Model the fold of this input.
Amino acid sequence: MRSYIEECDFFKGIDPEEIAGKYGTPTYVYNEEIIRKRMREVANVITKYPYRANYSMKANSNLTILKIALEEGLNADAMSEGEMRLLIKAGFPSDRIFFVPNNVDRSELQFAIDNGIMTSLDSLDQLDLFGRLNPGGKCSVRINPGVGAGHHEKVVTAGKKTKFGVAEEDVDKIFEIAEKYDLKIAEINQHVGSQYLDPEPFLAAVENFLRIAEKFDSLEYIDFGGGYGIPYHKLDDEARFDMASFTERFTALLDVYAAKYKDRLPLFKSEPGRYCVAEGGVILGRVHACKQNAGKKYAGTDIGMNVLARPTLYDSYHDIEILHKGKAVSRDVLEEISVSGNICESGDLLCKERPLAHIETGDLVCVLDAGAYGYSMSSSYNTRPRAAEVLITKEGKDVLIRRRETYDDLFALFPEINS
Ligand code: LLP
Done:
């Protein structure tokens, strides 16, 4: 049976025990080569027409990873002033940042306007506010294309059951507000949802979106959003998202639009987050206790829901490899185990009653595909400092790219401690 970390030499010859010893556990470990490879794939999804991929940094906002995205020629999208500020720190020029907020106050919009950052407005109310702040300006409007997709209802961001975007039937109202403030709607954007391996709903949304785009005059950009999925069940040989056939079918849809608008083609854009970084990241954690409860085996680790929220939040599946003395334990013999964290909640489980390789106290667990929505969604719940982040560089060196949070960091916000 497969070991992903051995097959791709994830740690580039470095003993995971050495990493755990040097940086402690839990630690997020990233492989630079894998991240660059995935970023290159998304950068080249469309080659026939002007096209740019925006790295959606909510998936992983580590500064070093943002710099890698910049080097790989990706643009980036930001959801908040904090994300815009971090992209600016990473060296992204304002014309390579796209601000895609929802329900923000005037100060966040003003920050984008002051920094010349193209902004998407998610509702007629927010478009009106933008018009008041920046009459005569340019902006994008997020349209709900009416088709959604995704791995869990909590990540489907289009269709009838979501807070996102302006409905197609309100397009005339967009034009009224634009006229009132002399705004140029230079872009429309959509995002149907996250983690689809079947491209059908996305392609249907693209086709529909291009039809909606025809209602707008001289668009400079059409942004189709992100969502490309990754194989979270890779140890069971789950198939990858078929980029080659996706490119072919996506391009064919653009051909139809381009034939009509050949003299004034917009820049086509997408916004992948997960695909760029998920597989290039794992979490190393330590097994601190094994026990049997009511005949079921539990392995208790330091990877709680504070470190990786996805399994608790969405019942997400992450493959888990067990490392004994730094070596992947053979999966030829499996035993049913629930792997838990050290948080005071029964939902604090990385997996429930799953056949895994033999686990002993003292082993390391390696949670795969944790590079996206891992650290960026982690918390200090139960007053546990956030994990460290380490990059295995393409030269095979381990480099600390975010130090572990300290208790001082956690307590620094209380006024009585600081006064
Ligand atoms: N663009 C917009 C406007 C988005 O809302 C998102 C994700 C993306 C792009 C990037 O989507 P991606 O390519 O990464 O699927 N925390 C959840 C995923 C939430 C995604 C929210 N929006 C998870 O862990 O599965």
